[in-house]
Design brief:
This protein is mainly beta. It contains 2 helices and 19 strands. It has a 19-stranded mixed beta barrel. A hairpin with a 5-residue loop joins strand 17 and strand 18.
């Protein structure tokens, strides 16, 4: 009987893995994708503000005519009568949208130039441009009369993988040592949680003041909660919930910690086939509603706005028509 040879000194030699064994091995997990862009600090409460009727409210009479001049150019004619906020008169507003597309999957094109001038020569203008997916800038300015600058502001944004940094310089006057500088930073901690801070420097007549604000946002599938705390003792909390494609509601809580005052607001936005309704109610006894109703298709839209303060008895009403051509 033959005896098998002893194993080699290093132990038995393992057989090479078969093709079946190689296929059964777990694949190498792909690298985690970068977190989505958290957006700028100034847009922290944007979803809630888009639901509340106070952002769309107007009083008096308003007539707006939008006319397309070309594929990239549109002009707007606005007539306002009897408003307690906007002076009575006529305003002309051209808008230009460029042909540069940063993202092929997005309909946005750059640069975008928006302006408006009234009968007294007061001009307000805004220019928005995106150089690539990471770097964008915006300039806004307002003049009074022919040659008097009232406000000017230049902002730059840099969007990285899961963070965004913004820097703003406004109304700089080196001769009188006046101006405002703002820097903000937003960081994605998780895909749902975002934290950020804002640093504001303001100088007037040689006297400088610096404040810092903090903010946080938690975004789930159908709802978003945001909170921001200012250095002056102001606390703002907002909650936005998308109930369906046609129904949204939002709440807002504003607290002045130093004065011990607080105001709560509840708002909703309901979209119908040919109309939209926004309403809000506040703890100050103020009820507000804004209705957009198509009259003869989307080319003619009627707006009705109403506000009643049950505490003071103050009431306002607005009626407007928008013509799209």
């Amino acid at each position: 009987m033959e005896v098998p040879p002893p194993p080699p000194p290093g132990g038995p030699t393992a057989a090479p893995p078969t093709d079946m064994q190689q296929q059964q091995q777990p694949p190498t997990p792909p690298p985690e994708p970068p977190l989505p862009d958290p957006g700028p600090y100034m847009d922290m409460h944007r979803e809630t503000m888009g639901v509340l009727a106070g952002m769309q409210f107007f009083d008096g009479a308003r007539f707006v005519c939008n006319r397309g001049v070309s594929q990239n150019m549109q002009v707007t004619h606005t007539i306002t009568l009897g408003s307690s906020v906007i002076p009575t008169g006529y305003r002309f507003g051209p808008t230009y949208v460029g042909t540069q597309k940063i993202d092929p999957n997005s309909p946005q094109q750059f640069p975008v130039m928006i302006s408006e001038i009234d009968g007294e020569g007061n001009l307000s203008a805004q220019i928005i441009h995106s150089f690539n997916k990471k770097i964008s800038t915006a300039f806004s300015g307002r003049t009074q009369g022919k040659n008097k600058w009232m406000v000017s502001e230049l902002t730059g944004h840099y969007a990285g993988d899961g963070f965004q940094f913004s820097c703003t310089a406004g109304s700089l006057k080196p001769a009188s040592q006046e101006g405002v500088g703002v820097m903000s930073y937003m960081q994605k901690i998780t895909p749902k949680l975002t934290l950020g801070s804002e640093w504001v420097y303001q100088s007037m007549g040689g006297h400088a003041q610096t404040v810092m604000n903090l903010a946080g946002r938690y975004r789930a599938k159908d709802w978003t909660f945001c909170t921001s705390l200012g250095a002056q003792g102001t606390l703002q909390c907002t909650y936005h919930h998308k109930w369906s494609d046609q129904m949204q509601y939002a709440t807002q809580l504003q607290v002045d910690i130093l004065k011990g005052e607080a105001t709560g607001t509840l708002g909703y936005h309901k979209a119908f086939r040919s109309s939209q309704v926004r309403g809000q109610f506040s703890t100050k006894g103020e009820a507000m509603v804004v209705v957009d109703q198509e009259v003869l298709g989307p080319n003619i839209v009627m707006q009705i706005a109403g506000m009643l303060n049950h505490g003071t008895g103050d009431a306002k009403f607005g009626l407007g028509f928008t013509f799209n051509n």
